[in-house]
Amino acid sequence: MRPEEYEIMFHAETAHWWYRTLHEMVEDGLRRHGAPGGAVLDAGCGTGAMLQRLQAHGPAAGMEFSADALRFCRMRNLTRLARGSATALPFADASFDAVLFLDVLSDSGVTDPHEALREVRRVLRPGGVVLVNLPAYAWLRSPHDVAVSTARRYTRRQCRELISAAGFEVVEANYWNTALFPLAVLVRLVKRALKRSTSDLRLASGGVLNRRLHAILCAERRAARFFPMPFGLSVFAVGRCKAPLRSQ
Predict the structure, then answer these.
(1) What is the pTM for the complete model shown?
(2) What whole-number distance in Å separates Cα of residue 190 and Cα of residue 113?
(3) Which terminus has fewer CB within 10 Å in the chain: N or C?
(4) CATH 1.10.10.60 fits domain 3-241
(5) What is the pLDDT of residues 64-115, one digit of tens each?
């Protein structure tokens, strides 16, 4: 990710409608599938807003490759931090009950998503879960992806296959950000045509519009309890680990 994007993320992450919705989905996913109060690793914790929320519920640690991102985490007074790679997690076997990979496996810095998920299996306890968020649809690649170093986009089926191939039981895999899909597609296609290389985090990060967009996605989440979304800008999935992958 471009260094300047971390500063944008730091200021937007606690209030921006997209982040707020994702963080609420993670908390809900942990309640439904994880061990309440268990040890959680936010692998690729960015500037730390999700980690800050997690630490209010139980023991949580963050890991990041970027020194810039970790600096912003410390500005949030976060201390349980480690610098490392998604494909070589700096933690002992069976250390966590849940691991988060929020828009990490799609990052250009992760050269082998399969190896990253095998590392998750190694550090998870039996019955632990991995929560994954990924950007959807390769054809939606835009200047936003360049700005935040997104190398890969996934369909729901590809997401399920990726998690299953690493030895997880997929217990949930759904599209989200469906209601705003048409508008977002239009914005990204226009930015692509104009060759603007800014990220989407600058859009509606405060004020009335931000609150309304968050309310729309909250309504979408309630609807998704009764029927799955047929498409969306992102895929959110949960995989359960039947047994840890022991290091050799």
Answers:
(1) 0.91
(2) 30
(3) C
(4) no
(5) 999 999 999 999 999 999 999 999 999 999 999 999 999 999 999 999 999 9
